[in-house]
Amino acid sequence: MIDYLIDDSRLVKTQEMFAKCKEVVAGGESSYARLTGTRPIVMERGEGARFYDVDGNAYIDWCIGYGPMIFGHRPKPILDAIIAQITQGGMLYTFPHELDYEVGRKIAAAVPSIEQVRFANSGSEATQAAMRLARGFTGKDKVLKWEGSYNGFLDCHAFSHHPPFDAAGYERYPRTVPSLGGIARSSQEAIIVGCFNDLDAVEKVIKRNAGQLAAVLAEPILADAGIIPPEPGFLEGLRTICTDNDVLLIFDEIITGFRVSLGGAQERYGVLPDITCLAKALGGGTPGAAAFGASREIMALEADNVVLHGGTYSANPLVLAGVNAALDILSGDRERVYGHLNAIADAMVGGMRRIFADQGVPAIINQVGPMWQVFFGQDEPVTRYRQARASDQRFFGQFQAECQERGVYFHNFNFERFFASTAHTQADVAESLEVIETATTIVRKRLASLPAGV
Ligand SMILES: Cc1ncc(COP(=O)(O)O)c(C=O)c1O
Fold this sequence. Notes:
It is globular and about 65 Å long. Helix 2 runs antiparallel to helix 11 and helix 3 runs parallel beside helix 11. The protein has two domains: 170 residues, Aspartate Aminotransferase, domain 1 (Alpha-Beta Complex), CATH 3.90.1150; 257 residues, Type I PLP-dependent aspartate aminotransferase-like (Major domain) (Aspartate Aminotransferase, domain 2), CATH 3.40.640.10. The chain is α/β, with parallel strands linked by helices. The chain contains 15 helices and 14 strands. A hairpin with a 2-residue loop joins strand 11 and strand 12. The strands form three sheets. It has a seven-stranded mixed beta sheet, sandwiched between helices. It has a four-stranded mixed beta sheet with strand order 1-2-3-13. It starts with 11 loop residues before the first helix and ends in a 5-residue tail after the last helix. Pyridoxal-5'-phosphate (PLP) binds next to helix 4.
């Protein structure tokens, strides 16, 4: 807890309720990523670009639930679709229904590499299923993933998410490091870790392991290390190397899908994977929206029950009704939707750059479309995970806390990111930038006043 800035009187009910939650929910939260907060937030409700805590404090939300709420909180068309489904149709079928067809058709129309899909219940499940599908298709076992990338919390992929430097070995050929405790050692044997944006090193690793390597599970934009875009030629080169070595290319588009473009990063960069994983923006905030998809040839392994995939709740009509409504908005008016998202992000990034430059605070902001992150203490382009990790976390942590205190929320972990939604307005941008300016001034002065090395 940071205790030098916070006015506790604003958070009386929050503290009380959070203490109660902690009595019955381990840590008070049900995800590791939410345990990192400097100050608890206990929600009352969300509305558009804002949420309100139980003390009545309002926050402009640039985290939007870690990305899903691309239309902001409580978007009416999605709520209406879910309510209609639950009141008129039911919430669980476990039989095919029209929504399977409608949503499958819309995903296949939007995402260039997908012909068929299967629905899952979370991003972690989608990536796990994609890895298994690649193993079934190639008859090989190993999967290469990026250092600094999060593909989910399951045993099959929870490695080298944000490993400390002393555990992770050489940057170009990193060691495989379990992301936290309890992960089976046997799973570790199946994971190779590569360096995003180092095509030469990645090629060597793929060639050396080609006989055992089923797939590269690649976030096409390293969005779990802040935001790190692929350097020109990296994805194209990766595609060629995978094809030449009979290794499937899986794009984990759980953050990028339906966000950096309707067709995701594969459309934006013109590089097609063999298998794609989707969640988050796919459902516009509908909990449990997730899918994976590929060509008919690859998906035949699912259709013929050669590779095991299941889930009692997979493709439940409640979720699909929400996804269907989200896809209608995203694809129905894509120029307006993506134009707005990008304009909001551009205004925030432009404003933040101006503030940091005016105050002489060294900072690099990486942006791809509607998502961005700031790396303090950097003056060179941030193109690798380890550079992101080496940025000034102390400045970032205090900066985030000062913004949160003043009603502008983004995640307090520098490896997360800011997201724009269609609910954000230029007035939200102006208000946020005012707070960001104040927070920057406070943190800059405070850190400058400390003796060297403190
Ligand atoms: C790139 C990426 N892949 C997979 C996941 C896992 O998704 P979920 O949290 O829905 O299991 C995440 C979650 O943040 C993610 O960012």
